[in-house]
Design a protein that fits this description.
single chain, alpha+beta, Metallo-beta-lactamase, Chain A, six-stranded mixed β-sheet, 10 helices, about 25% strand
Length: about 350
């Protein structure tokens, strides 16, 4: 273990992640592994809980040959004593649940997740190109996105959810305050909203450990976006509200996030995240003084050059801030002649 350093009021106990195919024991019975991602955020942290006669896996990694190969190496090393016995997925995003079907079928083990995350996984899994493209087109047209940018994005937009990974013979639904025995510890389910509909974070009170999923991350804010399914959703209100609930946990909790490094300083990080979004709301409000579409506001909130992958998330997050202010009555919304929504100060 390296000597701690501090950043934004946080303390990092480890400065380096585990190497591919290896694990680090971060607490008695709790092991950290890392898998690659094919995005700018190029990794995900996964957690293995040693239950004495089998392993409880927390999240899966992205469905890719590289990830499957790394799981294969773990089958021969970490799992050589005894196999996995249970899979818990914190939420439905493809880096967290993308290999759920593959892992549950490999080991004939049950999947545990929340009802809304399972529904969201199925919602994406039911999409095909014929339903996705009209949804995306409406999403961008309502946001005032130029035809050229729309067509460029739609040309590359593909359904990436493999239906076979929706199969699971045994599904156990989690809900807030459920207690799970894993890794020789009792874990209580703490629900996070906004980044995902019903993210299941896991808290162990005895050792003060929080497996936070994407709800609380160091150094970066999880993406909080309106999605094409529901243009009038208010995920930012849900995110900020549920994030505040995590302030009831001890400040010196060891946070095991899905991205970046484990840390302590939970309250400091939550306050930083809340302040970040409050500041972004002020910027959003200022962008709408003379009226702005989502596209126009996106260029204000994200002035740097964005590739098409980044633009989708920036656009969705901008709309989340606009909808927060609109639902709060701070902004009004009108429809332009072209069908785009224009947000104005009320």
């Amino acid at each position: 273990m390296n000597r701690s350093s501090r950043d934004e009021g946080l303390t990092y106990r480890w400065h380096e992640p585990p190497k591919s195919g290896e694990s680090i024991e971060v607490s008695d019975g709790v092991h950290w592994i890392r898998m690659p991602l094919p995005f700018a955020l190029d990794h995900i942290n996964l957690w293995l809980l040693d239950d004495g006669d089998g392993w409880v896996l927390v999240d899966t990694g992205f469905d890719s040959p590289d990830t499957k190969e790394l799981w294969g190496s773990l089958f021969e090393t970490v799992f050589s004593r005894y196999p996995p016995k249970k899979l818990i997925c914190t939420h439905h995003h493809p880096d967290h649940m993308g290999l759920a079907g593959w892992l549950t079928n490999q080991f004939d083990i049950p999947l545990w997740t929340t009802h809304k995350e399972w529904d969201a996984f199925h919602q994406w899994g039911r999409l095909d190109q014929d339903t996705l493209i009209p949804l995306m087109r409406q999403f961008y047209e309502r946001g005032g996105v130029s035809k050229e940018r729309q067509e460029r994005d739609l040309a590359r937009r593909q359904v990436r959810w493999d239906r076979k990974h929706l199969e699971s013979d045994v599904l156990n639904l989690l809900k807030a305050d459920d207690s799970i025995r894993a890794g020789g510890k009792e874990w209580v389910v703490k629900i996070g909203e906004g980044h995902a509909p019903e993210l299941a974070a896991l808290f162990n009170a005895e050792n003060k450990i929080l497996i936070s999923g994407d709800q609380v991350l160091p150094r970066i804010s999880p993406n909080v976006s309106v999605l094409p399914f529901d243009l009038e959703a208010d995920p930012l209100k849900a995110f900020m509200g549920s994030l505040s609930e995590f302030l009831t946990l001890p400040e010196d909790t060891l946070v095991l996030p899905s991205h970046k490094l484990p840390f302590t300083g939970l309250h400091a990080r939550i306050k930083t995240l809340l302040a970040h979004h409050e500041e972004r709301l002020l910027v959003t409000l200022d962008a709408c003084r003379n009226g702005a579409t989502t596209s126009e506001a996106t260029h204000v909130l994200f002035p740097r050059a964005l590739d098409d992958h980044q633009y989708f998330f920036a656009f969705g997050e901008t709309l989340a801030h606009l909808n927060f202010l609109w639902h709060s009555g701070v902004l009004s919304r009108e429809e332009s002649a072209s069908g785009a929504y224009v947000f104005l100060t009320a």
